[in-house]
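tool=predict chain=A
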Amino acid sequence: MEAEEKRWQQIEKVLRLMINRLCAAGMGVTETLDTELAVIAAANRRHAEVEELEALVNSLTTAVTAVDLVAPVLPRSSTDGRWESTCAATALLLDRLALNDTDLDAKAGALRVELTRARTDAELAAILERTADLVRTRNETAEAERQQATTVLSAVNLRLEELLKYFSSSADLGRAGQEITAEFDVRVKRQMHELTQESNQATNLAALQALVTQGLESVGQSVKEFRERAQQRLADQVARDEQMGQRVAALEAETRTLHARLAAERQRARIDPLTNICNRKAFDERIEQEIARRATTRGPVTLLVWDIDNFKAINDNFGHRAGDRVLQTVAKCLAQGIRSTDLVARIGGEEFAMIMIGLSIEVSQQIANELRETVQMLRLHFRGTPVPVTLSCGIALLQDYDTPGRAFERADAALYKAKNTGKNQCIVAGVPAGSLSGS
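tool=predict ok
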């Protein structure tokens, strides 16, 4: 968590540096715009709060819009290379965010597309502003995860303190018992020694009998006191054991409740909120597990990468609500078409990934085609208008010494081929040269 926080702080530092350089690069267009840029640069250097920066960005947007109405603010001449360098740095920042969250990844991907189309300073500034929002959102997520971890550690620490107190008190009782036994032993030995000396000095039977009776009574009293103290010590120990047992049971119940809540949070963190199937994080974890498992079991594992054909056209023609309905319906079809041992996840905007266990490449392709045909036969309508939906799929069988990246590249290359040779089809990736069989 600390490493992640440090990484995001470094990203924030780069963003602030980029803002300063963009302000410097934007000087010289108009006096009004120069004033706005100077104020933003000064606020950025003193690490102003988000609210102040947001107000300044809104003010800058108004100023740029006013300038655009008179004379469009065009990017700098390509001769100095500053525009290209800024765009390249922004693209690199978006690539390195590695948000590992379906929705945030989709937003970062959309920003990359917008960056390639940006032509003015205002457009680039808007992209940087939204990039900063992504960084802030990821920071908030990391902070929430760290708070959860802190809660768990606090509960564990409380339990360890309780156990330490119990063991410490038990050790104290044990030491007290040893001291009582040693004291009793010394006392009895002293009494027996005194009785022996006095018996040797006795001159008649009556005197000897009196001495023995008195000595036995003294020893008996010592034994009685020792037994009473031992019984009290035992009663204290039993009471402590019962109290500790109750406390441990309560702590166990609290821990189980906490773990159940954290497990639910962990599960929610691996579910895509729109489609209610696994997200990119869950997929990444599962593919790592399957690669590790396959190294010992040698069983076949198939990776399928899906993409909704012409999804942008669906959003453009019918709106994003229709696009969301398409994503939900496709996700439901894919989830219902696999076994409980398999996995399907939404890994991007309109992209899905599937992992099938123990099936040959031929069977996996057959199932993929059945799922593709099921989606094709869907009769989706939005506001009375039919919405045609088809899928393309790339399939790869995991090979020896595969990594998640290599396997995904092969499946993605097969998907790319399916998209570029007619769409609405499932294509199997070729086996890399020198690879062993995946069966």
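Residues 179 and 269 are 57 Å apart (CA to CA). The chain has three domains: 2-144, 160-268, 280-428.
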